[in-house]
Design goal:
The chain has 4 helices and 6 strands; from the N terminus they run αββββαβαβα.
Length: 107
Amino acid sequence: MITGETFREMALSFPGTEQKPHFERTGFKVVGKRMFATYLAEDNTANIFLTPKEQAEFCKLDPENIFPVPNKWGEKGATTFVLNKLPGEVIMEALLSAYNEILKSKK
């Protein structure tokens, strides 16, 4: 089980990242760029912003606990991870993918 504090440490372990409030969630972003993940303490879930192709691959691993966010963001790759049910290695791999994608973007 990944706790909120563990997720926070994982997300902030990448160079140049910061934590910011994001509505009812805690957001994690690359300084000067956009968010790559958010965390919701109330249900211990994270939304990690993957590419649609990466999202499809992660969802195959455990469709019950890794699934698209049920809105337009989900169609663009935003993916919910149920942190109580997933190993840290899967979460870290998803965070790294999202972080690297942000570094590639011009924004």
